[in-house]
Amino acid sequence: MDVITIESKAYHELMGKIEKILRYVEKEEKAKIEYENRLVTNDELEGVSKLIHPLFYSSFTLSTT
Q1: CA nearest to 10, candidates 22, 18, 21
Q2: In 10 A of CB 22, how many CB atoms?
Q3: Which pTM was predicted?
Q4: How far from chain centre, in Å, is Cα 41?
């Protein structure tokens, strides 16, 4: 097993950087969960409906025979 010796100042700087990365990762994970669990507004649904409606109904043809 190898032992690495570093100065106290360097150790504290390294730990500070690691903690900063950890806070960033935790923030991103929280934002991802909030985004996945968000509610869709009526305006968003209306926008999707306007896109899907023509595509859905254009796939059907009515026969007048």
Answers
A1: 18
A2: 10
A3: 0.52
A4: 18
Q: Rounded distance, CA 1 to CA 57, Å? A: 69
DSSP string for 43-62: HHHHHHHHHHHHHHHHT---
Whether the CB-CB separation of 16 and 24 falls below 8 Å is answered with: no
Q: What is the pLDDT of residue 58?
A: 62
1: Cα separation from own chain's centroid: 40
**41 vs 3, residue with greater confidence:** 3
Alpha-carbon distance 23 to 21, whole Å?
A: 5
CA distance 38 to 32: 10
